[in-house]
Amino acid sequence: MPSNEKKLQPLLLAFTLAISLAVAFGFTWMVAVGIVQDLRRDRQFETASRQEEPRYTQDRVVIGADGKPLIEVQPTGRFYLTPAAQVVRYQDLEGNLVNQGGAVPVQNSVWLDRHDRSNAWKVHWPGRNINFWVSGSPGVHWHFIHDGRVDGRAYFVGYDDETYRCVGYIGKQGSREALAGKPPREECFQVVPSGWGFYQRLVTTQWFLSNERYSGKHAPDLSQGLHLPSWLVYLSAEDGLYRVDLKSHEVARTFEGPLLAVESLWEQRSKEEGPVSHLVLRTTEKVILLDPDGTLLREAMIPEPLRDANHLVFHQPIGETNLLTTEGWLGRPGASERLVKVYRFDSSGEISETQEIRLEAPRVERMNSWDAAPLWLVSCPAMAIGVLLAPLESVIQGDRTFTESFKRMWEEMAENGLVDARVFFPFTLLFPLLWAAIAWRRECRYGASEGGKHLWTAFVYLGGVIALLGYLAHRKWPLRERCVKCGEPSPVDHETCIHCGEHGASPELAGIEVFG
User: Fold this and answer.
1) Cα–Cα distance measured from residue 14 to residue 388, given in angstroms and rounded to the nearest whole number
2) DSSP assignment of 58-83
3) 114 touches 67 (CB < 8 A)
4) Which of 39, 265, 446, 475 reaches 20 to 30 Å from 158, CA-CA?
């Protein structure tokens, strides 16, 4: 065997052991942290003395029944607050409380975020399978199945809850018997994934059943008290909006043409009528309201300055006036202030009034030491490299350039409070230098070769503290004894002292060795 292979085999074995141990340490640490966090939450929940005042609040602009904008102040961490502290407050723009003595009626609203091919991603399992339950005798589990591609196709397939046999398929042409097989590609719905999945492509009341399976005997009754029947699914496809009735297996196209967003807007008109639902559609130029059967209720041109906006909030109309709000950061994404603009316009898109409202950025409770423990574990350059390489999938699919994809991803993470560049990169790139210094010092203390020092130090730096644990535990470390020449400790597995290079690093003979 060549000498190079003889040297390489122990090194590969050492790296394999070190990586395996690092993974084991990391998994054990995450499980332990999760258990401690659950214990802390349970203890805090069982404590009789809850927080009387929320530490932080989250504000948003809503429209009152009289058409005036209000500030909704919602406490965060409501799980640990007293009932009195959980009350949502409403203030006028001057900061005066307006819900003293009772609830404040506000207009319902929906997000109409722009979703098209520009922000489509390839979807993998289990996101390609969304489940729906339809009660009956027997009940049927319907599955929305998508091929996962950006330009992919989808269909519905149902299974009997008792026999688990396929009961049929549903495509654009309606129902197909089980023996006929799944619909051909031309009869499937052409659905572009929006963002990471299909949550903006499907309007339904059964989202909490997504990727779950209920037995027919214990399934919840989803037909009571809902503003949309639970067996109706509205599907936004490339050629329009489809109304899929999972009970009668009927399919109808209620709107023809491409859509940027579809949401359900409901209102409580009276106790006798119950909730009434409308479908809100956003096209490139219009906002359209339909009833559940697809009948046109209202349509209005979107004002020209708002047609390219990524984020729009549509509020329940007041008379002939339509209301849209936009929200953005004052300065860089993740800044301390947000700017909300309220637009009032008529059906032709003519803006009659614009209001600007400044709000503080949403604040959340600070993480304590145990909540931050997982970050201390995974903070390392490997994590930063993973974030930097995440946009490559979009580049490979040809949707956008790396710079555009990375900028979009970073802005979305910053807007959601997930990352701050001032903390993320120093924490992941500078903090692991401590672990790398420990590995370097240990390699020096045990007389490693120059190549070994650099190799193992780089390994620990890239992998962080879990790589350090794997490095320390992957082999037996030799004893060290003081050299009789220079007095410095030197490992006994070296023929010469690693400090002075002289032979005789072993301790001086005491004359009693013969008795050993």
Assistant:
1) 29
2) EEEEEEBTTS-EEEEEEES-GGGB-G
3) no
4) 265
